[in-house]
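Protein record
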Amino acid sequence: MTTSNAAASDTDPAVVGELTRLRDSIDNIDAAVVHMLAERFKCTQQVGRLKAEHRLPPADPGREARQIARLRALAEDAKLDPAFAEKFLTFIIAEVIRHHESIADDTAGGRS
């Protein structure tokens, strides 16, 4: 979507101010999401090392299914589309499994 500078200059300053306020909030939320994901991945890296050390499989389909069901319920409670929440978590889970497989390969190769 494109907007012209002329259209922006014709906009009520109160609307521009509210738009700026909302966008600042969105930017803050995005930053928080990134930091939370970083923390989550620090924990899953530790899980991956533990699994590799004990020769456990990188994936845990039972836990993944429980987590998806849990996240869908949380999404519903938060008035967020559960299908979106599931897609988001499925993407994260796939990345975690990829990391766990890499950690397992490194451990098996003596690079842990």
Observations:
- The helical segments are 5-9, 13-53, 61-77, 82-108.
- The two ends are 48 Å apart (CA to CA).
